[in-house]
Automatic annotation (TrEMBL):
SUPFAM superfamilies: Nucleic acid-binding proteins. Gene3D superfamilies: Nucleic acid-binding proteins. It holds the Pfam family Rep_fac-A_C. Residues 8-117 form the Replication factor A C-terminal domain. This is Replication factor A C-terminal domain-containing protein. It comes from the Eukaryota.
Length: 161
């Protein structure tokens, strides 16, 4: 993984950090919001939740996972757009599902562990960021289903989602 060019490789997901799959951002400017403070003003864009019909904040995926190529094990970070490919829903939908099914995050990581993907990894532009970033992800197994599909089957569709 030397040099600055993104690398594409075939890899297997070894583990997913299921304790922290998403984070909260301002619904307007998408800057990170404190998790314990969902209603106050966003200090960046001064978006006021009380004057608006849309929610003040939303969640985005930020998934830390370890993957293995044929030669190496990496820890990579998968942001919202790529995580949606493997989870099959938005972070808000997943969070709501997990409220009804407390083990959904654990189950989702178990479902995805062992799956093979073609991933493109790039070095973070921010020098302080420590993990390679997934910039493209393609499931390789025929019949791959996003985690939420399998979860819905597991838990049944009766409640919520
Ligand atoms: Zn904002």
């Amino acid at each position: 993984m030397e040099g600055e060019k993104p690398t594409t490789l075939v890899c297997t997901v070894l583990a997913i950090n299921h304790t922290n799959l998403c984070y909260r951002v301002c619904a307007v400017c998408e800057r990170t919001r404190p998790d314990n403070d969902p209603t106050s003003l966003c200090k960046f864009c001064n978006f006021n939740a009380f004057n608006s019909v849309s929610p003040a904040s939303k969640r985005l995926f930020r998934v830390l996972m370890s993957i293995a190529s044929d030669t190496k094990v990496f820890t990579v970070i998968c942001f919202d757009r790529m995580a949606k490919v493997i989870f099959g829903c938005s972070a808000d939908e997943f969070f709501d599902f997990a409220k009804l099914h407390p083990f959904a995050a654990v189950s989702a990581s178990r479902i995805l562990e062992g799956e093979m993907f073609k991933m493109t990894l790039s070095k973070p532009k921010n020098g302080n960021a420590q993990h390679l970033r997934v910039v493209s992800i393609v499931p390789l197994r025929t019949g791959f289903q996003p985690a939420i599909e399998t979860l819905r089957k597991l838990y049944g569709k009766r409640v919520g989602c």
